[in-house]
Amino acid sequence: MFKRLQRSDYEMILAMIIFGTLAPFVRNVATSSATIAFSRTLLGAIVLQIMLLFKRQTHSLAKGERKLMVLSAAALAGNWIFLFESYRYVSVSIATMLYYTAPILALLLSFIFFHEPLTKRQIGCFILTLIGCILISWQPQSAFNLRGVIMGLCAAFCYAMILLLQRFRKPMPGLLLTSWQLSIAAILLGIYLVISKDTTMLHISLAQLPWLLCIGIVHTALAYYLYFHALAHLALARSALYSYLDPLTAILLSFLILQESCTGMQGSGIVLLFSAMLLYSYQK
């Protein structure tokens, strides 16, 4: 199907696998989701700023870019808070699949707010996504957790907003873009922690610190660097195909390592969501 794999292919594959291993690390840090998100953005921003110094890359934001960057960073911060919160209430597989409805949700929002036409294929994606979400969240009353499902969908909404905001931004190197987003998101999350009087960061134990450092350095700085570096050299269809390694890795880990169970209804919902994603990314 593909020609011989190049360095950018391996970088994208590795980045997606790293993203897919995030959930077990989050579950080993017993603190608030906002604290984990703040630590992740802060550590990631510091590492990327150091990388930019070595590469001697600089870029100042114009007035119009600042507003877009703040909005995008706020959506990024909310995205991680809701996703980490979802991990606490539903299985990793369910949270991941709900989260990955974001690209399809972005299309729907584009249709509503920007009046972009929808194709029959896109409408089919919406229908499969809706049915898949219903099947995933349709559980016995004793096992149903509405909060976890809502948190997963909120994370998807924030991710969709990030995708929509990209259309208004001027081209910028991926490393610079990520560095700015993480830096602003860290500031916004820091303000949120102060306003909400969240002091859980002060109570993080030494045993949890390695997990938190790994989330910030490996799952954020390294993974995003690999992702954006590869994205500049890969075709869109190829990148879209590799992106499914993220939810696939997360789901496999949830079953094999976290020993999470999956009902027949949930399994059918996951299959439908995967089908919607493949249909969405398909290009002739």
TrEMBL record:
Record Pfam families: EamA
Q: Where in the cell is it found?
A: Cell membrane
GO CC field:
plasma membrane
Asked whether the keyword Transmembrane is assigned, the reply is yes
Primary location group? membrane
Keyword Cell membrane in the entry? The reply is yes
Q: Which residues form the EamA domain?
A: 12-137, 147-281
| Xref: SUPFAM superfamilies | Multidrug resistance efflux transporter EmrE
Q: Per UniProt, what is the membrane topology?
A: Multi-pass membrane protein
Q: Which family does it belong to?
A: Belongs to the EamA transporter family.
In its UniProt entry, what is this protein called? EamA domain-containing membrane protein RarD
| Taxonomic path | Bacteria, Bacillati, Bacillota, Erysipelotrichia, Erysipelotrichales
